[in-house]
Write a structure and sequence with these properties.
This protein has 172 residues and is an alpha/beta fold. 41% of the residues lie in helices and 17% in strands. The chain has one domain: 2-Layer Sandwich (Nucleotidyltransferase, domain 5), CATH 3.30.420.10. The protein has a 5-stranded mixed β-sheet with strand order 3-2-1-4-5. Helix 3 crosses helix 4. It is globular.
């Protein structure tokens, strides 16, 4: 299995009514040097200015981004090229990130290469330390900037720490 750490930035809380503005994905391995970055033109006229502001982009800038179908096709090709077998979706907040990626894949390509499931890094960490009040974010090395590749990289670093220092069994 190939673990793919994903982070999504959007202009609202749900796909379809609002838009995924950008996302980053990092192939989890020792080097963390294989990544994908997509910027997507909005699919809706609706947006929440405060949500969009988190991404650092203006609405006018996002209107110049790539067509979502092209970005999702490119991401599917990247996954196929970089994953020898089934890719496993993992993120810091998979409830949020997964719904956007899943919706966009199905809507724009007809299929989701990740299948029907995802994993949550935060929940994994809570289970390892046996404390639901704990947070993994101190394990990141890369600063959390809201650039999705930076954020996915930091989360992938945390996952590698779970393998090295906590004995998590994970293969790539």
């Amino acid at each position: 299995m190939a673990y793919i750490m994903v982070d999504v930035e959007s202009d609202g809380p749900i796909p379809g009514d609002y838009s995924m503005i950008s996302f980053g994905a990092v192939l989890v391995n020792e080097s963390l040097n294989t990544s994908f970055y997509g910027q997507l033109k909005p699919v809706s006229e609706q947006y929440i200015p405060e949500a969009l502001a988190v991404s650092g982009f203006t609405r006018e800038e996002t209107l110049q981004f790539d067509e979502p179908q092209k970005v999702m096709q490119d991401f599917a090709a990247w996954l196929k090229e970089n994953c020898k077998d089934r890719p496993v979706f993992i993120s810091d907040n998979n409830g949020f990130d997964w719904m956007f990626i899943c919706w966009y894949f199905h809507h724009f390509t007809g299929a989701n290469p990740f299948g029907h499931s995802s994993q949550n890094l935060g929940s994994l960490y809570k289970g390892i330390v046996k404390d639901t009040f704990q947070n993994f974010k101190h394990l990141r090395k890369t600063k959390h900037t809201h650039h999705p590749v930076d954020d996915a990289t930091g989360n992938a670093e945390a996952l590698l720490t779970l393998k090295k220092e906590y004995g998590l069994k994970i293969k790539w």
